[in-house]
Amino acid sequence: MTTLRLNQPGMIKVLLTSCMALMLAIIMLFVLEGKASAHGYVNNPSSRADLCASGINKNCGLIIYEPYSLEALKGFPAAGPADGKIASANGAFAPLDEQSATRWNKVNISPGPTTFNWNIKVPHSTSSWKYYITKQDWNPDAPLTRASFDLTPFCSVSYKGTPGNTYSDTCNVPNRTGYQVILAVWEIADTANAFYNVIDVNFAGDVDNIAPTAPTGVAVSNIAATSATVVWGASTDNVGVAGYRIFNGATQIASTNGVLSYNLTGLTSSTAYNITVKAFDAAGNVSASSNTASFTTLAVTGPDVDPPSAPTSLHVMGSATSTTVPLMWSASSDNVGVTGYQIFRGSTLVDTVSGSTLEYLVTNLSPSTAYSFTVKAVDAAGNVSAASNTLNVTTPAAPTTYPAWSASTVYVGGNKVTHNGVNYEAKWWTLGETPGSSGADVWKVIP
């Protein structure tokens, strides 16, 4: 039997470094897996991102396509988004960090019991839900920082399990007056991440609590295999109607900024639809539903030779890493139905996903490298669309890593460690305090 003897300090150091690199790669794999599969946002009271997606907040950037993707490291306030980037979950959706007393529409709220409802795109194992609120004397014309908030959550709910597609907490909101911001945090159990939503609210004062009247006379015309036109009568409101939301059954499928018609596209042939419309105002009040207009799209006859429309709005969903790029795009339409999407890196086909999938995590990339991506839609007959817009992305440099944190090691100020894929620096002497855990103020997150 041959015995391997590690007599050389250099060889031992190489092996230890390799083991730590392998451990970090495994940790990052789990983190990225969670990041690609769990998304959600607060839709009542409407969060800043939700009001952007519905068209009430303006000039929001790409968050209008994915209000559910405000994801950053968990552990707020010790960790999580950096000061000045709290609303955008660390800068991926920078327009959300613009802050002034008049920049964002506000939802009226009162102190006391309030139900916060999360719309969850994909359920995921959860550890907690936490809610923070700004201090009474915070500065609404300065960027949101930890100093803006009371850092003790006014509502903290431990949770063991996986929620459904909706989840609600009823919490006692503290007394405040005027414009305030609530920060809602959904912490994922099996990754290092959490979802951060800010809600712009208004207490007391001149409060608009009156919802618009329900739209009337909803009717559908120009029915084709994949499209139809919806029209309705105007609602009224004590202040003013801001827009309309269009639903198929309980699912919102479109919205307008005040016009009284909408051309539905991307429908499925030979399929029944039940359309209703609701009006909303700038304070976030939503009307009752209109009457229901039911119709069935036409069947397609003869061979299918029409390709789907090209996917649009291909963009980075969140932020790229040194080896991955998360992609997202808007759905194509087809005279029969889209069955899949082809993802290309340059001219190379990377993968094909189902027709109901609008996102993809490209992996195995190289750090500090320029890439171009496009997406094409396909249908059951094999027709392929034109390419989407070309998305050019340069991956960031590989992150700096440090020795793995150990509960049995004494650290002093300036020592750097890596724990759960995150880099930390010790502020002073410490032993056994887990980086990123609640109350571990000794550790600060570093790039």
TrEMBL record:
Residues 214-300, 310-398 form the Fibronectin type-III domain. Transmembrane segments: none annotated. Keywords: Carbohydrate metabolism, Hydrolase, Polysaccharide degradation, Signal. SMART domains: ChtBD3, FN3. It comes from the Bacteria. This is Chitin-binding protein. It comes from Paenibacillus segetis.
